[in-house]
Amino acid sequence: MPLERPVRALDDDRDIYSVSRLASEVRAVLDGSFPVLWVQGEISNLAQPASGHIYFTLKDAGAQVRCAMFRPKRVLLNFRPTNGQEVLVRGRATLFEPRGDFQLIIDHMEPGGEGALRLEFERLKRKLAAEGLFDEAAKRPIPGFPRQVGLITSPSGAAVRDLLAVLKRRFAALPVVIYPAQVQGEAAPASLRAALAAANARAECDVLILARGGGSLEDLHAFNDEGLARAIRASAIPVVTGVGHESDVSIADLVADRRGATPSAAAELVAPSGDHLRHRLVALSRRLDAAHARHRLAARQRLNAVARHLALLHPSARLQQRAQRLDQLEQRLVSLLSNRLAQAQSRLRPAAARLIFASPGRQLAGLGVRVAALAERLARARVRLAETRRERLMRAVAGLEARSPLATLARGYAIVTRLPDGAIVRTPEQAPEGTRIEARLARGRLIAVVESDSST
């Protein structure tokens, strides 16, 4: 009879996995442990079923891995994958549970040569960003009105023609210097760095434009050069880039002081707008005219104030003051004469009294005759003094009358005042048509109404 294999009792505390559970937990570990990966390899076993998904194996000399790319991502491809093609894929590692196969779920795929350049681009981008070469604080402002612009580009490419056309359209008087450089090929990075160094050494421009037309990632590889990026940052002159199309972003774009999406856009950033300058000049001219008008108004106001001040110093006002002074002098003269006569009479009365009481008759008679003679002399002197004073007074009155406004009126002039306020009319503007006026003549007054004026 056959031998029986001994049976060992199962330990109840052992954790026994089912195949499904194992596959599920392995998948969970893979999904949670790996970030999104970039993997480069060769396509083989390519399958493209009617569902629109594609399945293939990605391999190199030492290993291979299954890959799946589902239809929503596949339709975004800009090329048709083929067996034996070198590609760069981006995806996540997982496990296909039904078969227990390790695989990559692909969300992006590009041809391998360009993919290597893309990887190098991303590596250099992270490196330079960590060093602070892309920091906005380190970037210099672009001059608003450059005296001269330098172009670092190929002198025979389409980009230089676009740059010159835009600069001429924006500001035709802006001088431009071209620093020739290769913009494609193995020698291009060194050529671009040399042109940038020459522009800085000559120091004849206020801003530089580093530009070339569009192309593939490989065509633009010269502008992803680390040495060129450091040269741009070390440049003493601000640098504006205009590399490729709007969707193309190079290392040079990231490190430059300003980036134009295209060469034409870079020229737009650098050249001031002639139309804008013309509008600005018009606005400044208007401000100048307004300031001039305000200045004229202020000057006119000051002139009016001076005119009012001069009116207070007019000769008529001074004549009135002189006439008042003459009246005061006349009053003082009359008072002085009266005082002198009173004093003389005061001295005569005591002498007459003494004569009355003098004793000899002859002396009395002689003294009487003498007193009479003295009285006569005194009377004559008084008359002469009065005449002399009167003549002086008349001469002063005649001089005053010669300077009086009444004498001016006697020569045929008139003083015109506006009714009813009595304001003196000096110009036609002060008495427009229909105004009632009064004309003071040498003898009498006239009331009239203005029919017209000759102010215009």
UniProtKB/TrEMBL annotation:
Its EC number is 3.1.11.6. Residues 371-403 form a coiled coil. Keywords: Coiled coil, Cytoplasm, Exonuclease, Hydrolase, Nuclease. The keyword Iron does not apply. GO terms for molecular function: exodeoxyribonuclease VII activity; nucleic acid binding. Residues 17-110 form the OB-fold nucleic acid binding domain. GO terms for biological process: DNA catabolic process. It is found in: Cytoplasm. Residues 133-447 form the Exonuclease VII large subunit C-terminal domain. One of its GO terms (cellular component) is cytoplasm. Pfam families: Exonuc_VII_L (PF02601), tRNA_anti_2 (PF13742). InterPro entries: Exonuc_VII_L, Exonuc_VII_lsu_C, OB-fold_nuc-bd_dom. It catalyses: Exonucleolytic cleavage in either 5'- to 3'- or 3'- to 5'-direction to yield nucleoside 5'-phosphates. It comes from the Bacteria. Heterooligomer composed of large and small subunits. Belongs to the XseA family. Bidirectionally degrades single-stranded DNA into large acid-insoluble oligonucleotides, which are then degraded further into small acid-soluble oligonucleotides. This is Exodeoxyribonuclease 7 large subunit. It comes from Thiocapsa marina 5811.
